[in-house]
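Students often ask why inverse folding is considered easier than folding. One informal answer: many sequences map to the same fold, so there is more than one right answer. In these notes we will look at a single instance of the problem. The structure comes first.
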């Protein structure tokens, strides 16, 4: 179903105009499939258990129960009859588990390999460097501009290279289902496509000191035109305000300053001891 001018209902809405299956979507479908199958298996097992408990309930008029050939403890039932049922249920379980393992692994490989593939196919990718420090984040854009809050255009693949300037941190945006280690001296990559404009929260997910719980920032997903305008306005700002930001004082950066639209962070000088 498609309305004139409006977005198509269904997958196209989830995929946005970028046409890229974002990690949020992949992880959501993994969650839904596991939840669905888990519920189904649970319902079948519990119903069958209850059914048998009822079927073989104690009945005075039929007792003592007729002598049956029961398998001994530790002995597998012979094929045929009860044995068949056992092997069938083992077989189906193995099939379900194996399919889930293969499908999930393939999905994870897709998420891992997508940025490289997209770049090869000429898809426009925005590369942003993410620097964690006690206790905040610094984002560096391709033109060298630096901000304390992440700004990205909607419907564009955003590739984050995450690292840390001091201790272990972990950068994550729960609503976009991404999370990536920030390790000093190493770079880890993660990516997302935000289909809807709005403001999301990013957190630190690695306990890193007394300011850890306050180590949050905002992710502004903007209309592509508005983003472009903002981005062009940051041109040449990388050298501006190169004042020394003294170590721990970063944690005390006032919320007003950090929330200001397009607030730029002064380049960080020196390390935190
Ligand atoms: Cu941290």
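Output (designed amino acids):
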């Amino acid at each position: 179903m498609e309305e004139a001018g409006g977005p198509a209902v269904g997958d196209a809405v989830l995929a946005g105009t970028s046409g890229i299956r974002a990690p949020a979507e992949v992880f959501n479908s993994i969650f839904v499939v596991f939840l669905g199958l888990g519920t189904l298996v649970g319902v079948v097992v519990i119903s069958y258990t209850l059914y048998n408990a009822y079927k073989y309930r104690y009945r005075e008029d039929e007792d003592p129960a007729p002598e049956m050939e029961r398998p001994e403890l530790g002995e597998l039932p012979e094929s045929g009859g009860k044995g068949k049922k056992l092997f069938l249920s083992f077989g189906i379980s193995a099939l379900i588990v194996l399919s889930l393992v293969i499908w999930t692994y393939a999905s994870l490989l897709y998420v891992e390999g997508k940025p490289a593939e997209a770049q090869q196919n000429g898809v426009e990718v925005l590369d942003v460097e993410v620097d964690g420090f006690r206790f905040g984040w610094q984002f560096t854009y391709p033109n060298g501009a630096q901000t304390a809050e992440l700004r990205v255009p909607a419907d564009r693949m955003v590739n984050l290279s995450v690292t840390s300037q001091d201790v272990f941190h972990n950068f994550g945006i729960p609503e976009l289902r991404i999370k990536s280690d920030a390790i000093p001296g190493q770079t880890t990559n993660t990516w997302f496509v935000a289909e809807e404009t709005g403001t999301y929260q990013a957190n630190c997910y690695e306990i890193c000191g007394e300011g850890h719980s306050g180590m949050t920032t905002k992710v502004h997903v903007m209309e592509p035109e508005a983003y472009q305008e903002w981005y062009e306005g940051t041109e040449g700002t990388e050298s501006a305000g190169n004042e020394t930001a003294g170590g721990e004082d970063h944690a005390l950066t006032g919320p007003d300053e950090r929330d200001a639209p397009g607030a730029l962070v002064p380049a960080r000088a020196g390390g935190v001891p």
